[in-house]
Amino acid sequence: MNGPTDRNADERELAEFEARIARGEKIEPGDWMPEEYRQQLIRMISQHAHSEIVGMLPEGAWITRAPNLRRKMVLLAKVQDEAGHGEYLYHAAETLGPTREEMLDDLLDGRAKYSNIFNYPTLTWADIGIIGYFVDGAAILNQTMLARCSSYGPYARANVRICAEESFHMKQGKEMVIRMATGTAEQKRLVQDAVNRWWWPTLMMFGPHDQHSPNTPQLVRWGIKTRTNDELRQTFVNNLVPELHALDLEIPDPDLHYEEESGNWIIGEIDWDEFWAVIHGDGPCNEERLAARRRAHEEGRWVREAMAAYAERKKEPERA
Ligand code: 3HC
């Protein structure tokens, strides 16, 4: 049991920790931190890493079907970038204690969450444009905040690199959507159909409304997040709606309207039943996504074993 002296020491450390965050200092691995701060970061960074890795699947499915060599090269590079993002993020999470194997087990055993958005199918080539434009656009907004403000040094720095690459992803998606929206009637139809299917799931990426977001207060208190789920979602909608109108693309929300006094585009209600079902494993592609990750993990086992054996062999002369 903690005595009064221990409690005083804990309170002093917490006050100093919070003062560092208030001064805008980064918390680094090995620094004192409250256990809840560590746990929140492990949860958030590992979910983010899993999202990058699972996120390779819906787009990866179109690499062999890209309409020309240039598009194929761009898509290959983009999917490869997502793998790199997963790498940076698993490393950042490892600085807080868990091993990569433990995090991957959580994903493969279905215990870990990853972004809702990757549990929807990519039905046409237009979906690849919309993923870049909407999904990477939403991710950038969220991760620019994390890069600038997140109080944990390794996570903030990983996000700086990730955002630089994501901004290319977003631009290539936007360019595809502009081309298709201003192209043939069939291209326009395909891109409108993709907007219809991806609009709502993309808005769900920002998480539940603030009043239903149990983690936000603690994340904001400790400078991990500096803007709430609803604030970021509103900024995203305000940026995107005029752009879609300019392209003469319809937004699948009959309640969408502009509010003069706030200057905001107000959306209708999100289908939260769908959101909770998807993030708890019951979306259109959850089973398929996890099955693909499990298969990849098994098929890559020999590579991991060969690398471990090679590393052991390299140590041998030192031992001799
Ligand atoms: N998908 C899946 N689960 C989600 C979710 C989403 N879009 N939004 C919220 N949730 C989950 C939370 O993880 C939490 O569950 P848990 O407590 O069991 O972990 C629960 O719903 C309640 O949500 P909260 O609002 O309380 O959770 P947070 O305050 O953590 O906010 C978040 C959710 C905005 C996603 C935040 O965690 C975050 O900013 N994470 C870092 C960024 C990230 O993970 N992005 C993934 C996007 S995809 C991507 O980057 C790939 C790129 O290639 C596009």
Please characterize this protein's 3D structure.
The chain has 320 residues and is mainly alpha-helical. Helix content is 68%, strand content 2%. The protein contains 13 helices and 2 strands; from the N terminus they run ααααααααααββααα. The chain has helices spanning 4-22, 35-54, 56-60, 69-94, 100-108, 125-149, 153-181, 185-204, 216-221, 229-246, 272-279, 286-299, 301-319; strands at residues 257-259, 264-266. A two-stranded antiparallel sheet has the order 1-2. Strand 1 (257-259) and strand 2 form a beta hairpin. It is globular. The N and C termini lie far apart (49 Å). The mean pLDDT is 95. The protein binds 3-hydroxybutanoyl-coenzyme A. 3-hydroxybutanoyl-coenzyme A binds at residues 43-44, 47-48, 51-52, 55, 82, 113, 115-116, 135-136, 139, 142, 204-208, 213-216, 219, 229, 279.
Brief overview, please?
The protein has 13 helices and 2 strands, in the order H-H-H-H-H-H-H-H-H-H-E-E-H-H-H. The chain is mostly helical and 320 residues long. The N and C termini lie far apart (49 Å).
In which range does the helix fraction lie? 55-70%
List the uncertain runs: none
- The largest sheet has its strands arranged as 1-2
Largest sheet: 2 strands, antiparallel
The helix/strand series, from N terminus to C terminus, equals HHHHHHHHHHEEHHH
Bound small molecules, by name, code or SMILES, are: 3-hydroxybutanoyl-coenzyme A
Report the portion of residues in β strands: under 5%
Secondary structural class? mainly alpha
Total helices: the number is: 13
Average pLDDT for all residues:
95
Question: What integer value in Å does the Rg equal?
Answer: 22 Å
Number of strands: 2
Shape: globular
What is the CA-CA span between the terminal residues? Answer: 49 Å
